[in-house]
Model the fold of this input.
Amino acid sequence: MGYINSTYLLVALSLTVVFACIGLAIWSSRKPRVNTKKVTVTGGLARSQEITRDQKWNSDFILSAIADGVVMVGKDNKIHLLNPAASDITGWPPSEAVGLDFHNILNLVNEKGEPCALLDHAFAKALATAQPVRDSNSWLATRGGKRIPISLIVSPVVSGGSKGAESVVGVFRDITAERQEEAQRSEFISTASHEMRTPLAAIDGYLALALNEKISKVDANARKYLEKATVATQHLSVLFRDLLTSSKAEDGRLASYPAVVELGEIVEQVAEAGRFHAKEKGLELKFIMSSSDGTGGGKVIRPLYYTYIDPNRMREVLQNIIDNAVKYTAEGTVTIRLTGDASVAQIQIQDTGPGIPAEDVSHLFQKFYRVDNSMTRSVGGTGLGLFISKKIIELYNGRIWVESELDKGSTFFINIPRLTTNQALEIQKKQAITTSPLDS
Ligand code: ADP
Done:
């Protein structure tokens, strides 16, 4: 018995060792667990592995949940995807829209309802250039014939090695409510500024009477206060005038009476008026007329820059830019140049003022924008002049921009399409002479 027991014991022990070795071998041959976080990153997007697994279901879910319209258009100009919000805005069910040419579904028009030119369509531009395109001025004609203002951004989808866009994805929004709010705000500003100008003119008039020595007797102290009140009243009057003009410019009600105008004459007149203010401040004001047309026999030929603009509106712009150059320049020179080529007349207004910080330059033409520095704080202004100037220049298909260097100065550029002498004569022949009253 004792002998049998020890044999069994030996066998059992050997078996235990064999199983333990097999177990250890299996354990050690297991794949190591390195990462417990299940994340996939592609093209700057991070998503969990569960999402990758159920990608189709998830992207459908996300696209349905987005309140903005999302449309994907392929290189073949066909709609490949349209989410429910896009369907609601356009009036096209996805089942009908997918496979159709995008021009049928995304029928962009201008404010007057005229169709957008084929190559100007934001989707066509993004497909052609493989660059993102933003458009906040278009209207979408829906399937039912309604016109809706939209804000749209179209981004190209570019894959690895390919050059152009494989497809483009557009995201757009109905901005009817924003437009209505803007219109109401603008209407309020317009009415308020118009109404306030009348009592203000009366106050200004009475202040002038009080300061007139032939009519009123005031002591030195009272005169000082009345003079200060006059300056403040005039400032307020400029503010109301600018508010009225800017609200009109915003909703396209800015009166403009374009005619054939020789730009040189206008620039010269405004520069002459500016010279007076510049001199008062101890600044030099130069007016230089040059042209790539050349000179003749050592004698400078004065080039004629014919343009099709409202002369009064152009004076308003030049006055504002020249006034600014004088206002913000403590010492040195303001130089006004008129130059150009066959198709463009260019005005440059250069100063030796404080310059404009690079981060402010892109905001400068926005409403109420003023650079926040000691110079602007000490100099009065409304922050509306450049906004109005830009709106006016755009009326004539022109462009206005600034180049500036801190502590060196700024140059404002204005480009206006130039007419040939023949074009100018043709237009003059056709056009009846009109006057151009400014907004009262
Ligand atoms: P404002 O009534 O304040 O002059 P503008 O719209 O004409 O309004 O100008 C906007 C802002 O741009 C100004 O407040 C000023 O900060 C800046 N700016 C305009 N012109 C110049 C200039 N020539 N030099 C420096 N800063 C300027």
Summary: Residues 320, 324-325, 328, 351, 353-354, 356, 364, 369-371, 376, 381-387, 410 surround adenosine-5'-diphosphate (CB under 6 Å). The radius of gyration is 35 Å. The domain at 180-250 is CATH 1.10.287 (Helix Hairpins). The chain has a mean pLDDT of 84.
